[in-house]
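cache lookup: miss for this entity combination. No prior model stored, computing from scratch. Input as submitted by user K.M.:
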Amino acid sequence: MSSGRILVAQGGGPTAVINQSLAGVALEARRFRDVTRVYGARYGVRGIINEDFVDLTQETSQNLELVAATPSSALGSTRDKPDAAYCQEIYHVLRAHQIEHFFYIGGNDSSDTVRIVSEQARQAGYPLRCIHIPKTIDNDLVGNDHTPGFPSAARFVAQAFAGANLDNAALPGVYVGVVMGRHAGFLTAAAALGKKFPDDGPHLIYLPERTFVLDQFLADVKAVHARYGRCVVAVSEGIHDAAGTPIASLLAKEVERDAHGNVQLSGNGALADLLCEAIKAKLGIKRVRGDTFGYLQRSFIGCVSDVDQREAREVGEKAVQFAMWGGRCGSVAIKRTGFYSVDYELLELDAVAGKTRVMEDEFISASGTDVTDAFRLYLRPLLGAGMPDAFRLRAAPVAKVLKR
Amino acid sequence: MSSGRILVAQGGGPTAVINQSLAGVALEARRFRDVTRVYGARYGVRGIINEDFVDLTQETSQNLELVAATPSSALGSTRDKPDAAYCQEIYHVLRAHQIEHFFYIGGNDSSDTVRIVSEQARQAGYPLRCIHIPKTIDNDLVGNDHTPGFPSAARFVAQAFAGANLDNAALPGVYVGVVMGRHAGFLTAAAALGKKFPDDGPHLIYLPERTFVLDQFLADVKAVHARYGRCVVAVSEGIHDAAGTPIASLLAKEVERDAHGNVQLSGNGALADLLCEAIKAKLGIKRVRGDTFGYLQRSFIGCVSDVDQREAREVGEKAVQFAMWGGRCGSVAIKRTGFYSVDYELLELDAVAGKTRVMEDEFISASGTDVTDAFRLYLRPLLGAGMPDAFRLRAAPVAKVLKR
């Protein structure tokens, strides 16, 4: 006899739309007569271990809708990466609470957790349906056209660079913006969508999919600066040398800053600062400014793609439908079916779990410092409606009176 | 006989609405029959020296409206701070081009430039009307209730902290966000408007109007972290010790980083990084993240206050009206007349030029690390319509089965 209990949790870094998926699961599950309880685990898998559950069946649909439109993980999240023993513990708690369906909203690591828990339940002969619901601003899940959370973060990055370009045009110099994404450059590449006029920035984009060579970087910046009198650069936090060593730590050594020797990639401004200092020192350009977009790019409230919102909602709803009608375990994936339309499918957990997608070669220009039109075509519809636009004066010059 | 020529220029740091003021001047001036030409100087006063003018009379009103809605200075800006000789040069160029009205959109330094040029023209007996149009995200112009550009930047800061608070609640730890404002703390204080529920961050706000004491800061963070298990902090880039020395350089010494010895306040992440390292080292808290809002806070496209937009437009229009109907030199100022309504007045240039307003004591709480309700009442209407709102789950806890 069925307990009718399901559990949903959120893992990894928050996004602008991860609560849409949560609301999608909760509201859709509540429509099924067989479902008696919709539990939410607080702080991801850690909340499962700690039996820290809340009953979403007792939440109003009105408030679930309001929470859906609120960024960041409403249930709380965790950075825990469960090993087999941790997963065993998860399985035991789920079983103790007679959970029959487990929905975990997260990225690669989360999908691997779902895969292990699913396998353990199967081996024990306990009928647990495990569904992974995709979420990551890095867009690095294989088998997905794109992942919920990425479009809104990409929109933030595109808008940020559109603004930074205007600022840089008004007060010319070099501007370096460092964007999240350790292995996949999708989010950094989104900077290109902030560009409108041919001489707009970002003029150069450095992705983790390509080897970063400092001398080449400096030569690139010098050439753009010579041409336009200014230069806007988008840099992924994950740029590395041919051996895979992060540039942040290499540069730190070069400028003899031991204390920066082993820097974390996110949550500090080291990489931007070090690149700016290299430009100042080696190119002799005075006005050089660096920003690290940091947490703003994933949690800024009020910058969201409507396409991302509705898709994040749908992957949650579809997860429940796949579980209820299909009775299979798996990972929900977004499939592009037109320009622009999508559908959803349930992939095998093995096909997604623990794997990392990086930017396809067709999306990166031959120079390695720009994106292709294929990427623009890929990303533009994801950014959604109402993207702000930038306009310029085109006024006629006035003849000089005093000087020639 | 009148030449009918006017000149407008933009100075200092760009804002989200400075082009509204530009459009206000151009469109209003074009309505006057006596005005034959509306010139714009490219790159502020430097463009005047270089006779680098464009003819805004030949720009379409459609495009002027689109440019008005675009952030950053469409004419270009400058960081030049003219001395008497520089002003003399400005005056000579204006005279050579038979400019009769000079409108300069900018902050304190710009108002001082307008004052000197106006004085020089008067002494030379040349009939030049000089009007300063207020603009600064720092909100530090005396005689103004607030300055155009500040409300939109404040909105960005409030939204950024609302999001950072949600992110920090999902993945608890300490978050430090560094905000622009060297002498005046208004923009940093705007972080308080991102707070909704009583335990929301920012929990602590450090302003340049109060002396920063590192030990007290660490004690404050420790206390908040002990209470909520997390802590969100807003810090002004201008925080300093009792002697007025910037904390960035003090901390750099303390952690023995000579290369950071003499850091610039904006355009790098040094202060946030140093504060985060102090928290990690002295309080033993693991998850500590710092963001420096940098240029995003003044040039992000798509985050703007509608109140700011319309007021920035009006100070431009009023500047022309004061010049045409009043025939006086002066600085346009915003006066608050109700909750919420404003009117505009023309102040003497002497009353504004080169002076700096800081946050009034009534806006800062007794603790020195929060704002008062008077400040909330002051700022809220400026942020405009459609501020995003954050919602929480209020679901009932589920009883534990396994553990007690």
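stored under new cache key. Chain B has two domains: 5-148+303-352, 153-301+361-383.
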